[in-house]
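User: structure tokens for this one?
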Amino acid sequence: MIAWANLFGQVVDWNAVADFLSAVSITVAALVAAWGINAWRREFIGKRRIELAEDVLSAFFAVRDAISSIRNPWSAVNEGLTREKRDNETPEETDLLNRAYVVTERYLKREEVFSRFRTLKYRFMATFGKETETNFSTVDRVLNRIFSASRDAHTLEAQLQSVAGLQERKKALDEISDLKPVFYDHGLKCDEINQELGNVLSELERVTKRCFGRYCGNT
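Assistant:
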């Protein structure tokens, strides 16, 4: 043991002092390291959340554009021709069925866009809360409405060929008129499909907006 007397005549054990200072320095270093790890962890998690938020938002924008294309009221002469033709179809039936198939054909050409959006659902729910699942289910519900309205409208058009009564024809035409705004986008402000998609976008932006500050904090 190395000991010295200080000015007050007390014996100082410098080995003990050195051990104490060493312990203090180790503790400080550990605290600094822990703080650095936590800061890195927060930054890493924040970046991951930002990346996920960007992926979901960009995927939704692609979905919205795809739905807009699917609902385009103008169709090319070659659209609907990929439908498998049935035996003994009349030219009138072929034309009607091809036109009815246009919505499905347009969807199939863009199916990858919707698949990408769906694959992000569970990661997004795990990160931002299970209640965010409604945003994904709304998109699927919108698609089902479009498919169903298109199918029903063209079924009614086919039935018109055999409807003789004026009242029955008027009823069918009114039903077709009510269905067309679902699968056709005429650019109206009151368009229900666009309103639903707008609500989804607003909710996604609300949930993810904290991710685009200094770091992505907890929601």
